[in-house]
Amino acid sequence: MSIYLILIIAIVLIIVVSAFVKGRANKGMLQALKRQAVKRGGDVKGGTLLYYPRLSLEFDGVSFIISAMPGGGTRGRRGDMTYVDFSVPSLQDQFFRIMRKSESVQSAIDSLLSVKEIKIGNEEFVRMFKVKGNDEYFISEILFPEIQNDLMKCTNKQLDIKFEKGRFLLSIDGIATSDQDYDKVIETSVLFLNRLKKYKGRLSGRR
Asked: Residue 62: is its pLDDT beyond 60?
């Protein structure tokens, strides 16, 4: 048996095993998202070999997308991740990122780019999370004690929250399949939405 044939067989086996593993993850995720859709009045699209299942919800007139993406496509991410995504287009100029403190690739990149680190919150929150952004007042208006306490209760070691160009993205490590995980990421994201909309309202009131 030639080396090329062995290599082809190995590649085929890797593809088959990967498809099997992703299929199982898709099935567990799909069932969990369907339960969330029933609970919160959303719409679910099933996954394929290329895409994970996707749940669409609406909160206070804002569309939420809950799904997953493979690792490697996002800076600092090695493994797959589950995420919640929504937009507040009127806050295009604002930026913040909240990450659990770790020796991550993204932390190194942020340091090189001189992204401003902002220390805000109680001592425990500062010890657990790194906060970076372009406007300390804006971040202080968003990171109210209620949100800080909520984030500290999150057990996922790779919690990562980013708001940039009007887009909010909360992600956790791995493909979530439990109701508890989805309840947590959705409800935390709703807390952020409420704070972002209140800040937006105050801006509108000044004009």
From this structure: yes
**Residue 139 to residue 53: CA distance in whole angstroms:** 32
Amino acid at site 145 = P
41-77 burial: b if 16+ Cβ within 10 Å, else e:
ebebeebeeeebbbbebeeeebebebbbbeeeebebb
E-only strand ranges, the chain: 43-45, 54-59, 62-69, 81-87, 95-100, 129-133, 160-164, 167-173
Q: For residues 51-66, give the mean pLDDT.
A: 94
Q: What is the reported pLDDT for 15?
A: 47
Computed on alpha carbons and rounded to an integer, the radius of gyration of the chain in Å comes to: 19
Helix 179-206 and helix 3-40: axis angle, to 10°? Answer: 70
Range with the poorest average pLDDT among 26-30, 145-149, 168-172: 26-30
pTM value is 0.80
